[in-house]
Amino acid sequence: MGGFPHCRPFPHCIKRGLEMTLPRNRRLRGSMVQRILNSGRKVVGPLAVLYWHPVAGGGPARAAVVAGRRLGGAVVRNRLRRLFKEAFRRRMNDIPGGLHLVFVVRGKAVDADFRKICRAVDDLLLRAGLMAPREPGHGGRSEEIRP
What we know:
By secondary structure, the protein is of the alpha+beta class. It is 32% helix and 16% strand. It has four helices and four strands, in the order H-H-E-E-E-H-E-H. It has a four-stranded mixed β-sheet, sandwiched between helices. The two termini are 24 Å apart. The model is unreliable at 1-17 (pLDDT under 50).
């Protein structure tokens, strides 16, 4: 963190013990992403495409976000990655273990706000059958969606 005060966690996050990053044991890296893109099942949505593949070893659901260069510069792509990872993080406990997921961000996501991205992730997970439908008026275990 050094000399960059703007990179430090917000004080309210420290007080409440909120973890605002996707834990390492929930991240996919490298060749696993390519393997899932080539052989996994997929669901297409307006903001992203979800690929998933069951894993024999079980363990927690893991995810990766792919944002291609055609979406924009590095700042835009990294922002979209952060938003999709956060949307997944808020739902990761609702997804059964033993799954690897890859979200491929589409062009319309560039103009979407965080609420739309969260709704898109929820919709993809529901349509893929990876998350149980929520009862009307039931907040569930997941966090409230705030920008």
